[in-house]
Design goal:
TIM Barrel; alpha/beta; 8-stranded parallel barrel; 8 strands
Length: 272
Amino acid sequence: MADFVYCLNASTIKPTPILEQIRIAGQAGYSAIELWHDDLDTYLALGGSLSDIRKALDDQGLAVPSTIFLKGWWDTVGNAYAAAIDEVRRRLQQAHQLGASYCIAGPPLGPVDFEVGANNYARLLEVGREFGVKPVMEYLGFAEEVNSIEAALRVMNGSGHPDATIVLDPFHCFRGGGSIETIGQLQASQIAISHFNDSPAFPPRELQQDSDRVMPGEGIVDLQRYCDLLRQVGYNGWLSLELFNRSLLAQDPAEVARTGLEKIRTVVESSL
């Protein structure tokens, strides 16, 4: 039997409208869906409401572990920083209204000052406490510096904040060149959610982008070891299928979601 909870990241079936994303996730058999704030805002701009979205989630029996994403919190100053935090608050309020426990905080893609990042992450977590939603430290494999679990931990530990958490991602581990073995340095309580995907053998690692991700088990990442490490630290939470693969985006989103869930189950259950 599986020891994780399966989730669909809405990126996998973009640009499907948000209510359809929710219906597809529920009917495919997922327990949860991660929603993107740009999709929420598109729906609201067309006259919809967050209560509509909440009802759709309830109708499908879906949780929302996290929403995506917060930006500008690390690499802005002065008026730009104040504007970024205003937008952070707006998004955290949306996350709260949808019942999300977490909201993913994206890092800058270029050079960074880790001390500034750690201090600003601590401030961000304090803002999150206003809404009962924890901003989650994200690393991105194609970022210049914040591209590994090790880099994310540097920010988390530097913040000194008890609410510091991380979103794990096999693709970003591979793309950034960090080791998945670093998962062993985490406590289960530090892992907000794990995205789940795979990386192909081609193009070369250093050239891969989001759109190169493939379904779990179709690439070269040792996902069985990845799952074993999650178990070793006591994590039994969400595995969320997150893909941006253009060929999949051109296919029937319901079929993509169903196939993705089957692929996750195959990988996880073969690693038990």
